[in-house]
Amino acid sequence: MPSIDHQQRAAGRALLLTGRRHTDGILMFWNRAIETIRPEELADLQLKRLKWTFRQAQEVELYQRKFREAGVSLDDIRTLDDVERLPFTYKSELQAGYPFGLFAVPLRKIVRIHTTSGTTGKPTVVGYTRKDLDNWSELVARNMTMIGLGEDDIFQNAVNYGLFTGGLGLHYGAEKIGMTVIPSATGNTRRQIEMIEDFGVTAIHCTPSYALHLSEVAESMGKTLDTLQVGIFGAEPWSENMRAELERRLDLKAYDSYGLSEMYGPGVAFECAERSGLHLWHDCYLAEIIDPATGERLAPGERGELVITPLVKEALPLIRYRTGDVTRLIEGDCICGRGQRLERITGRSDDMLVIRGVNVFPSQIEHVLRSLPEVGEQFMVYVDRTRHLDEMTIEVEMTRVGFSGELQDLTRIQRQIAGELHNTLGLRTMVKLVEPGSLPRFEGKARRVIDRRGDL
Amino acid sequence: MEKSYIIKQISIFSENRPGRLAAIAGALRDAKINIFAFSIAEANGFGVVRALVDRPEDAHRTLTDLGFRVSFTEVIGIKMRDEPGGLSDIASILGDTGINIEYAYAYSGKGGAILIVRVDQVEGAVRQILDRGGELLKASLFR
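ok -> structure tokens follow
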């Protein structure tokens, strides 16, 4: 029902100056009116759409039961804060509804199905009506225009094109703004590199770990990939150090893209040229930050789990969905004029490892390793339980610069890494140095943690 | 002149797991590189394979191309009497002149016994050994 599309695109396009240059501070909008909507107008729109979403959710058996158990009805939603009276939705509930149990429309209105990778259990099935697909493309179009992409760009979409939402999701958004789209998908890295060269690709979308792999292979092929200017990276957490490394190795500007299949896919939030937080599309997503343990809403600016109520989803309406992503809402305005930003995701509440009672996010380990020139960017974490004690072993690849030939230098590097990890994590770890190229490279979501503790 | 006795040892970083030595040795075999002497030093899950080979530059290139981390280390090869007291003589010279041995390994073959040492002052060690009538392997053996 809700249309979020291009009411005032012309106003946005009018700002598109000639002599286009990426990220040189020219403000470009796909849908200026909605992207820069005033807070009070936004609140009205959100409330109207929240009520619509509540009604849409009432079409789903799960929500009929949940609303009944929570004792809430549509009349209880008078202000935006009333969303707190509504029950949370968990991923496990979506999985339990497999395959189509959570659809609010008949299957003949569903025009596409995606599923999540199923890394955390049974796959989750998401469905889209035609309107949903339009909405999704609109959001991706906003994101891409925001970073200066448009008709003059050649875009290589180097992610999985199947059930993973990153492929088709960005594809249609990119076509919508008129980019020349190359649906290269994943694999055959040398061919990917040849295409970048031969087609003069200016923008690429892939996972950050694949981008690193791409840069390594390009280096070994003696290719510099000079036409690349913009990298859109997402689907896994990545650090600022990783950004610096990707930008140095590929000589491009790297942007963080956030999304999840349950909220259409990528496009939910995205960095603008400022790259100090991700702009969430508040007209489509109502965001809350909660304490994952208590479910209580946190004070403004505090870091916790992101909970989203999508406001325009027809096929799969969700109420207070627990994303499991850890972030915070950034106080203060962005100079680009768009709405409130999310901090870059710092971890998953369910990826979080608890080692001897200490909370550890794999992104923290990555951050430490990237600050040490002697070791490479790849790592694996193994967690074991030895004599009732958790042991974390981290395998790290040596680099070219890191080997003097002397054993004592290696043990010194090993101790240094363990020391830095101890400082950051507050935890003693076992560090193993391994040969370059021996650790797995990931083309989809990186799975760097192997927990071998079994059932506790 | 001391330089002509300083030998390039190749040092190879290796994980401590089955098959790694076979991979290194196989690569040297394929490149027809002969190994005079070698040792493995181990520490906490990884090791360094050290070897004296007939063509150190070729060995370095071959192994690096295969993705190994390789570096050169300067060592000297001291000839020993292959009878009781041979090692003692050499070790005494180094000890008496205040030269510290970081590590050493040895082989004994038909050409006699050789002690390969990595010392903290390599040129000083060469001078002291020669001054006291010792014999050293020529670096020209390893090209």
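Residues 82 and 110 of chain B are 10 Å apart (CA to CA).
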